[in-house]
Design brief:
- This protein is an all-alpha fold and 273 residues long.
- The protein has one domain (3-266).
- Helices cover 79% and strands 0% of the residues.
- The protein has twelve helices and no strands.
- The chain is globular.
Length: 273
């Protein structure tokens, strides 16, 4: 299969997944409402801390701090979920055997799934930001938006690799594998400083936090948007994410390929879990 055919085959997965989104539009609305409510609840914490503590604080800064963490985490977790749950969707639709026996490379399959995950996550997170903007005044005048987007895209690569590894669980454990992927998300949420500075964590947790790509995305995004840090200054964080992506992407694909070979030998590619 030449490069053009590979790209067409990859786009077929993107189109199929968007068709699934349209088919289950009701669930998409439920998920969007839940995500908006969750983001507003967390952001209102920042607005209310001064009232609860009866202390004079910069609530606007705290609101923005929590909002960045909320939106960045929503985007990264959406990328992770769309990759890690691709096997669960295949089983749900009854297409897993056809997809895995199709005459395409697994790289082509993953590329299509990856493109969909990134586009879908950007759109979903963008909608949440639009809604939140009606509730809070967001002053982005001094923010480095280009640098923030730079960091977010760099972090996406690592989360694609992590999501690919997590997709092994639904492949090998049809009954509860999809639920098991949430353990990955919970650990990343805890160790990455999504809603709090890493300095409040115990020492050993701070060391573990350095292994999470989300840690560097959040630090870079907050520096870019809260402090207006230049893109050139963000480069050390960017290169850490690039290195993480170069390790995690091939590692994720290798782990998935090994799990696929085992699943085929063990007869795990049945349609119903």
């Amino acid at each position: 299969m030449n490069a053009v055919q590979e790209m067409i085959a990859s786009y077929a997965f993107v189109e199929r997944n968007f068709n699934l989104v349209k088919r289950y539009w009701g669930w998409e609305i439920v998920w969007l409402v839940y995500s908006v409510a969750n983001a507003l609840s967390i952001t209102f914490i920042g607005a209310g801390v001064g009232t609860v503590s009866k202390q004079q604080i910069d609530s606007q800064y705290l609101v923005f701090y929590l909002l960045i963490g909320t939106l960045v985490w929503h985007y990264l977790s959406a990328v992770f979920e769309n990759i890690s749950e691709m096997i669960a969707w295949e089983r749900w639709e009854g297409t897993i055997e056809y997809t895995f026996m199709a005459p395409i490379t697994r790289l082509t399959h993953m590329l299509g799934q990856t493109l969909f995950a990134i586009v879908y996550s950007f759109l979903h997170t963008g909608l949440i930001l639009v809604v939140i903007a009606f509730f809070f005044h967001l002053d982005l005048g001094s923010s480095n938006l280009a640098g923030g987007a730079f960091m977010l895209l760099a972090g996406s690569v690592s989360f694609i690799g992590l999501g690919t590894m997590a997709a092994v669980l639904p492949l090998l454990f049809p009954e509860r594998g999809a639920q098991m992927t949430h353990v990955f998300q919970a650990l990343l949420l805890l160790f990455s400083g999504v809603y709090f500075p890493l300095s409040v964590l115990p020492g050993w947790m701070q060391i573990a936090a350095k292994l999470s790509p989300a840690t560097y995305v959040l630090i870079g995004m907050r520096q870019a948007l809260l402090e207006g840090t230049t893109t050139a200054t963000l480069l050390p964080l960017f290169w850490k994410l690039v290195i993480a992506g170069l390790v995690l992407m091939p590692a994720g694909l290798w782990v998935f390929n090994q799990a696929e070979l085992y699943a085929k030998r063990a007869g795990r590619l049945h349609r119903n879990g």
